[in-house]
Specification:
With 171 residues, the chain is of the alpha+beta class. The chain is built from 7 helices and 8 strands. Strand 7 and strand 8 form a beta hairpin. The protein has a 6-stranded antiparallel β-sheet with strand order 1-7-8-4-3-5, with helices on both faces. Helices cover 36% and strands 24% of the residues. The N and C termini lie far apart (42 Å).
């Protein structure tokens, strides 16, 4: 029997890697930017580079800043386990759980490499036609293309360098 990622972490057999959401020895770091279109039925082709890592079943949930987050199942389970360690007596905990858990959907990839995104998720991210998949380390984000163009535009690349320096990160 395979133990869950959370059980493995508690038993000490997995060590967190340097990138968020990843595990040492696991090569599944998502990176890259891919443009696709969503059809009238809400179906969306998953980029093959991401599909290779995600497999045929994974979780899509509401993301921050108006996007969707895509997680490997064990990563989402680990996230939920961490949330469940917090007390439901705290209003912010309940609010966070409602946002991420009630908005989550397990999706299956069909033979054409597509998933069906439920309307509630498409509405959250304002997905109508053109979308962008962005690999951001331990998970993937799905954006409306026009929103992605806005949020990923940098007027001055030096601002990014200064932010990295403030985080203590250098090349």
């Amino acid at each position: 029997m395979v133990e869950s990622a959370t059980q493995s972490l508690k038993s000490g057999s997995l060590v967190p890697a340097v990138y968020p959401g990843g595990w040492a020895g696991d090569e599944s770091m998502f990176m890259g930017e891919y443009n696709h279109t969503i059809d009238a039925k809400g179906r969306l082709i998953i980029p093959s580079k991401f599909r290779d890592t995600l497999g045929n079943e994974f979780v899509v949930t509401k993301g921050l800043e108006g996007c969707l987050f895509v997680f490997e199942r064990y990563e989402f389970d680990s996230f939920i386990d961490k949330l469940n360690e917090k007390s439901d007596l705290e209003a912010n905990v309940r609010k966070i759980k409602r946002f991420f858990i009630s908005g989550a959907q397990e999706v299956d990839v069909d033979k054409q490499g597509r998933i069906l995104l439920p309307a509630v998720l498409r509405e959250h991210a304002s997905l109508e036609k053109d979308v962008v998949f962005a690999g951001v380390g331990g998970h993937v984000e799905i954006w409306d293309k026009s929103r992605w163009d806005e949020i990923s535009a940098y007027d001055d690349i030096n601002d990014i360098a200064e932010e990295l320096a403030a985080f203590g990160i250098s090349f």
